[in-house]
Design brief:
about 525 residues; mainly alpha; 22 helices; 2 strands; about 5% strand; globular
Length: about 525
């Protein structure tokens, strides 16, 4: 019997979270970091044993609720592997970077003091990690749905227990949106079971449901149920309004786990469930989804330009980037979908860099308002350099990881939907505008008295926390081939299941159309 790598990978952080209940002080932080590093090591072992051409691997499948056809079923393909590695890398980075962020704040108002002990924060981080790993490897629809709902709980307490003055409202709004999407998805999950029961033995296994004959109108309704939940989680305009509020009131570490990790469930779900289970419905909905994707790209970028709060600013940039990811998925070309999958990883890394650097800035200055900064590069050059690096990664500078994924999304989209690709390029222009403005307003210019008195450069622990992110952004930017080799076969299988092939080149080798 093969060793249960995927179960071990997901359960280890959950066991660590339970263990933190019985540990106090700095030891709890050390245990959380050790557990996350051990999880990363197991993730690396899985990656080294992964065969890019081997299809679904490390499969674990045990009957769970026989009457409903539910299985505890896990498996990993190249798409899932990419996101598993993202979770495994980002979690220890967040724990180390947020080492003191959940501690009591001397002299601060009760409204911004942590409601719970610091060990609760790190336990919640580990729970989000473990549940995310289960979700990215789940190959049973019911199992996925259960944990899709469960992940709302730790994120709710992470926002509401350790955020800013309006954290209660932000956490409640986050939960309402999440539950609304989950309830609609539940109706689709039940409908999927009814259809499978009508066609023989009921089953929620993806391997069974992929070949399930579903009436066209029924399939479209079920697609809408899943897509609605994923559009909220991603998030896409107009289902996005919970994210800026939640990010603004979260700690930087909490915002990183939410945007850098949890929100990828939306775009991952679109590939794994919408495209593979409802191919005809996915093609039917493509025009609307592409419009919403482009709208998200432009709207998120425009709102980032006018944002006055650092955390809110980064959240709007993420809405714009999620628009690129969705655009690549529903362009239905191998190049664009591979780019979208890689984009999920790259966005998680660049967002982690930005949120965590923003956290360092806010903690030192005592304010998240962009207008309260200025001249930081003169008193904290390393901190300014890291903010610039994260900004350049976000705007997809050539040589950094996001460039190749964004280029692939736009190039692949242009092959089938040139108008949408051209409009989406406006997001690239606006990205350069909002990032340059943010850097100019925070890092350059005259030094205010408050910045001069309060701002200091980052220490060894903070530099160590960001070092893996910086190195990975550079490494993937120059050598993305191993990841692309792992992603491409999985995307090809999804394209085949969706009944789509790549469009012919618009210009032939002889130059004739």
């Amino acid at each position: 019997m093969m060793f249960p790598f995927l179960t071990t990978l997901a359960v280890l952080p959950l066991i660590g979270a339970v263990a933190l209940i019985f540990i106090k002080g700095t030891a709890a932080k050390q245990v959380a970091l050790a557990v996350s590093v051990l999880t990363l090591i197991i993730g690396i072992v899985v990656a080294t044993r992964f065969n890019p051409a081997g299809g679904m691997q490390f499969v674990e499948q045990v009957p769970w609720i026989r009457a409903l056809g539910v299985h505890y079923s896990l498996g990993l393909d190249g798409i899932g592997l990419t996101l598993v590695l993202l979770v495994a890398v980002v979690t220890p980075v967040v724990i180390l970077a947020a080492w003191n962020d959940a501690d009591p704040i001397p002299g601060a108002d009760a409204a911004v003091q942590p409601k719970y002990d610091a060990r609760v924060f790190f336990a919640l981080v580990l729970v989000v990690e473990g549940v995310s790993l289960l979700l990215f490897t789940a190959t049973d629809v019911f199992l996925f749905y259960i944990f899709f709902e469960i992940i709302l709980i730790p994120m709710y307490f992470m926002i509401g227990g350790f955020g800013g003055a309006k954290r209660a409202q932000a956490a409640t709004k986050f939960l309402i949106y999440g539950l609304l999407g989950g309830f609609v998805m539940l109706a689709a999950v039940i409908g999927l079971w009814v259809v499978s029961a009508q066609n023989g033995a009921p089953s929620y296994l993806l391997s069974d449901l992929r070949n399930l004959p579903i009436d066209e109108n029924t399939a479209r309704l079920l697609f809408c149920g899943f897509m609605f939940a994923f559009a909220i989680k991603a998030p896409m305009v107009p289902f996005h309004t919970w994210l800026p509020d939640a990010a603004e009131e979260s700690t930087p570490g909490g915002a990183t786990m939410m945007v850098g990790v949890m929100d990828k469930l939306g775009t991952f779900g679109m590939i794994r469930f919408c495209l593979e289970l409802f191919p005809e419905a996915s093609r039917w909905a493509t025009p609307v989804v592409l419009v919403l994707a482009v709208l998200s790209i432009v709207y998120g970028a425009v709102m980032a330009v006018v944002s006055k709060n650092l955390m809110r600013f980064i959240s709007y940039t993420s809405i714009s980037h999620f628009g690129f990811i969705v655009l690549g998925i529903f362009a239905f070309t191998t190049q664009s979908m591979v780019g979208s999958t890689l984009y999920m990883l790259n966005h998680g890394l660049s967002t982690a860099a930005l949120f965590l650097v923003a956290g360092y800035l806010i903690k030192r200055r005592g304010s998240a308002q962009i207008a309260d900064f200025g001249g930081v590069q003169k008193v904290a050059p390393v901190l300014a350099a890291l903010f610039l690096f994260g900004s350049l990664a976000t705007v997809s500078l050539p040589g950094l990881s996001s460039f190749i994924s964004e280029f692939m999304v736009l190039a692949g989209t242009f092959g089938r939907h040139p108008v949408f690709a051209i409009i989406a390029t406006l997001g690239i222009v606006l990205a350069a505008v909002y990032m340059l403005l943010a850097y100019q307003r925070t890092m350059t210019g005259p030094i205010s008295d408050e910045v001069s008195e309060k701002m200091s450069d980052i220490g060894i622990r903070e530099r160590l926390a960001l070092a893996p992110v910086v190195l990975l952004i550079l490494a993937i930017g120059f050598f993305p081939k191993p990841l692309l080799d792992a992603i491409e076969p999985a995307v090809a299988a999804t394209m085949s299941q969706a009944g789509m092939t790549d469009p012919k080149p618009m210009i032939s080798a002889e130059g004739e159309r």
